[in-house]
Amino acid sequence: MSASVDQPPEQHHEGQGILLAGGAYFVWGLVPLYWKLLDDVSPWEITLHRILWCALFGVIVTVFRRRLLHFIAVFRTPKLLGALTASSLLITANWTLFMYTVTTHQLVEAAFGYYLTPLVSIGLGVSLLGEKVSTTRIAALILAGGAVAVQAFALGHIPWVAPALALTFGFYGYVRKMTPVDSLEGLTVETVLLFPVAAVLITLWAANGTGAFPAPSPTRNALLMFTGPLTSLPLVMFAAGARRLRLTTLGFLQYLSPSITLLVATLLLHEPFTRTNAIAFGCIWSALMLVSLEGRIPLLSRRVAE
Fold this sequence. Notes:
Blueprint: H1 11-36, H2 43-64, H3 68-75, H4 78-103, H5 107-129, H6 135-155, H7 161-177, H8 183-208, H9 218-225, H10 227-242, H11 247-253, H12 256-268, H13 275-293
């Protein structure tokens, strides 16, 4: 990121950053409405189409950006390739889980999972990177655990969808943080690695007449093909916006996406928002508020070691 937290970017650049990053989160929040147009396609098949068309779109954009040599260099670097193979499997699992929440009408759970993600990232930073943790962050993690416990008590079993979404995306973010590769190039490599699997399965299903593509309807075919740009473009917007923003501003913007998804789920798709949901979300929102205020209130920033 070109500007540090201590030296904020110029106001003009910050405004651009908010539009770009905010636009990406806005798209991610509304994208369930797009997936609803493919409601009769299995989550696994939609994920394969995202991989297929995202890989093709990414390679085209890479050539257009004149970054093809950088892209090829990743495949010649075993350490980078190994890391991106791991992140490829993680993001594939995350996409499939999210599509599962759309088709099974569990978008409230998906929003809950993405609210959990920043707290999972804190836990990964402490456990895997040895980052120091403040009492505030410990309290936030306890609140997150309490939110999951509330849901478990109400359901009679451990809720798995939201934690699975949070863990797969949290670990994905950790792997990508440790992998020095451009955002779009990284996504292109991740999807190219699984491109053969996606291409073979989609071709076999098409030959057997059991797949969603090609469909008699040009609209259905266009919807499936556009999953590539729809996956890639918000990421490009996010990366461009992140370079122009303070980390604190970016941190607040990240809650925009699950908030919009929650509104879409409850107001437009009429999913129930129960009393248990309200208590669980209250715990998560309190935890996120504590983390957000930590840098602004010195007392909250006190480290455990102190």
